[in-house]
Write a structure and sequence with these properties.
Rossmann fold; 2 domains; two-stranded parallel ribbon; globular; binds NADPH dihydro-nicotinamide-adenine-dinucleotide phosphate
């Protein structure tokens, strides 16, 4: 993992991923670089990791400081080691249904549905959010042929007109907005499955740290209407890390086969 700067949330994510590697017996290295690292310097590190045979997969933790072009960095990662599945070549392969890797967060959501016994075939999945990291790949995965997919997918975003009228049609509602408690009970159909990707830190004077994590869904009220709902924290977050680990193992296996 490559971490640039000291964004507290990024530091936590990198630490959690490192811990999971250790738990699974995987060799892991964190390359921590200062906030003012030049783009050139970061690109050199990426090139070094691309050619380092002891590393099967790596990621550059986003967001990067503003002076660094994220796209340039993502494009510099060897697609065979791109375990986040952010490289355009890997996104394209996923889109045409021939994935090298699956993007970790959407894959985590999909596995959560599959392993919870939620039938997705022919179901109306509404994805709230259209980011390249969550919303778009999530929609692309659910519309593929096969188990855990075969859904009818609608994507909504900030320019969508009358969003609640669409979310209320969802058999499966997947929310990735970054807006604390945005989705309220009146926006959800009775019996729907709701997956909350949102991870927002909000002030809470009652919490020991003065803040706590909440999702994009008003969990306590929405859960009364749902047949299943994922919590924040403890829902999609841990699944994302598991899928990242799965991608890394897959990268190592592929490297062993092609050696
Ligand atoms: P982005 O900010 O990149 O995207 C947010 C999306 O939500 C955009 O498409 C935006 O629309 C849409 N949106 C924002 N406000 C509204 C609104 N009022 N009505 C409708 N749509 C709206 O965020 P990410 O996709 O990167 O992340 C989303 C959330 O998921 C965040 O809380 C993030 O922390 C969390 N996350 C959690 C992960 C995990 O592992 N648990 C991993 C990755 C993210 P528009 O495009 O029109 O601006």
């Amino acid at each position: 993992m490559v971490l640039v700067g000291s964004d507290p949330a990024s530091e936590v994510y990198v630490r959690m991923k490192g811990k999971k590697c250790e738990e699974l017996g995987m060799h892991s290295v964190t390359v921590a670089l200062p906030e003012d690292t030049a783009e050139e310097e970061l690109l050199k590190k990426v090139t070094g990791l691309n050619s380092d045979k002891s590393i099967h997969g790596f990621l550059v933790q986003l967001p990067l400081p503003k002076h660094i072009d994220e796209k340039k960095v993502i494009n510099a990662i060897d697609p065979k080691k791109d375990v986040d599945c952010f490289h355009p070549a890997n996104v394209g392969k996923m889109l045409i249904g021939e994935p090298e890797f699956l993007p970790a967060t959407p894959a985590g959501v999909q596995q959560m549905l599959v392993r919870s016994g939620v039938d997705t075939k022919g179901k109306h999945v509404v994805v709230v959010g259209r980011s390249n990291i969550v919303g778009k790949p999530m929609a692309a995965m659910m519309v593929q042929k096969g188990d855990g997919a075969d859904s009818t997918v609608t994507v909504v975003h900030s320019r969508t007109k009358d969003l609640p009228s669409i979310t209320r049609q969802a058999d499966i509602l997947i929310v990735a907005m970054g807006k604390p408690n945005f989705v309220t009970a009146d926006m959800v159909k009775e019996g729907a499955v709701v997956i909350d990707v949102g991870t927002n830190r909000v002030e809470d004077p009652a919490a020991p740290s003065g803040s706590r994590l909440v999702g994009d869904v008003d969990f306590d009220n929405v859960k009364k209407k749902t047949s299943a709902i994922s919590p924040v924290p403890g829902g999609v977050g841990p699944m994302t890390i598991c899928m990242l680990m799965a991608n890394t193992v897959a990268a190592a296996e592929k490297a062993a086969v092609s050696r």
